Amino acid sequence: MSLCHNAMVSLDSPTETRRPTGLAIFLIVAGVIGWLAAFALTIDKFTVLEHPAAQLTCNINPLVGCSKNLASWQGAVLGFPNPIIGVACWAAPIAVGVAILAGARFKKWFWMLFNLGVLGAIVLVIFLIYSSLYSLFVLCPYCMVTWVVTIPTFWVVTFYNLKEGNIPTNERVRSFFAAAYSWIPLITLISYVIVAVFAQIQVQWIPNAFR
Questions:
Q1: How far is residue 99's CA from residue 84's CA, in Å, rounded to a whole number?
Q2: Are 47 and 18 a contacting pair, CB within 8 Å?
Q3: N or C: which end of the chain has fewer CB within 10 A?
Q4: pTM of the predicted protein model
Q5: Which ranges constitute the DSSP H helices of the chain?
Q6: How far lies 32's CA from each of 112, 121, 125, 138, in Å?
């Protein structure tokens, strides 16, 4: 029996549960947005490598631009440009979302691995937010698009797995996250506000981003 077959259960299974269509659609939309942002940054990186003096369209003013990020060591934390990570990894939520809509049912170990990948994504984003605000003092437009979709993706996938029991826990915890699942938009908004407040304190983005 193949690994893919082990990872999924047929829609005709008697243990079938309601298909998480909302989750699937969210993963596809977030994945497409994240992938497009990563692809745009990858193109810009290639442009800079070919023409170091090129004026990139993402460079809007001294505060808002991507050239400084792309040229920094933080822009290549694994030894190659970060956008390449995005181009590769944002395909995963798209694939998972499409598979769910097609009727796939994933095993718990698959969801835990997927959640581990999402955890890695949010850790990287937190590092890049910190680097942008406290080391580079610049806001990269495409990077911020990535932040915007990574944050809710982390909350959605993690809360879903906790409420469904894909991450081993007790009934009380599952009930809590089942109730909290509907609060994810508010939690996401609070997360955005926290980042915006730190950005205002550190780089004064409100008066400077639109100059």
A1: 23
A2: no
A3: N
A4: 0.89
A5: 3-7, 21-50, 67-71, 82-89, 91-101, 108-131, 141-164, 171-180, 184-203, 205-208
A6: 22, 15, 17, 25
Residue with tokens 């955005």: 192
Question: Which has the closest alpha carbon to 146: 211, 76, 85?
Answer: 85
38 neighbors 86 (Cβ within 8 angstroms): yes
Beta bridge partners of 139: 64
Q: Which two tokens stand for residue 41?
A: 């940054």
Report the alpha-carbon distance of residue 171 to residue 164 in Å, rounded.
Answer: 10
Would you say how long the chain is, in residues?
211
Q: 138: closest CA among 201, 58, 65?
A: 65
The token duo for 19 is 């298909």
Question: What CA–CA distance (Å, rounded) separates 81 from 99?
Answer: 29
Per-residue pLDDT of 50-79, as tens digits, reads: 988 888 989 999 999 999 999 999 999 999
Place of tokens 């040229």: 71
**d(Cα 134, Cα 174) in Å, to the nearest integer?**
37
Q: Choose among 156, 160, 157: nearest CA to 186.
A: 156
Encode pLDDT of 73-114 as tens digits: 999 999 999 999 999 999 999 999 999 999 999 999 999 999
Say yes or no to pLDDT of 194 above 60: yes
